[in-house]
Amino acid sequence: MASLFFFESTTYWSDGDERAHFAWLDQINGVSRVYGELRKLYLDLNLGRLTAEDIRELRAVYRRYGGDLEQLKDLKEAVNVED
């Protein structure tokens, strides 16, 4: 089953930009796996490890790389964190 969290048809402006995207995701503790399928980049999240800071970082990386922020809208409630 594909993850509910993904980026679709991301445009990278250089090899370094692509590496930065993957490195940023790798630094978020609640991201347990990143994998691609066709034009989608999927994220498996470990909800038990996600913190408020992780959610802020996910929002930032989604904004930077054109992810659909709607995917993250219920995340705070799902992991029971506060602002």
Keywords:
83 residues; alpha+beta; Alpha-Beta Plaits; 3-stranded antiparallel β-sheet; 3 strands
Order of secondary-structure elements: EHEEHH
Task: Please outline the major beta sheet.
Answer: 3 strands, antiparallel
Strand content: 15-25%
Determine Rg (CA atoms, Å). 12 Å
Rounded mean pLDDT is 90
- CATH-derived topology: Alpha-Beta Plaits
The coarse overall form would be globular
- The CATH class turns out to be Alpha Beta
Regions with little confidence, pLDDT below 50 for 5+ residues:
none
By secondary-structure content and strand pairing, the structural class works out as: alpha+beta
CATH architecture: 2-Layer Sandwich
Number of helical regions: 3
Share of helix among residues? 25-40%
Question: Could you tell me how far the N terminus lies from the C terminus, measured between alpha carbons in angstroms?
Answer: 31 Å
Strand arrangement across the biggest beta sheet: 1-3-2
Secondary structure layout:
Elements: E1 5-8, H1 15-26, E2 31-37, E3 40-45, H2 52-64, H3 75-79
Antiparallel strand pairs: 1-3, 2-3
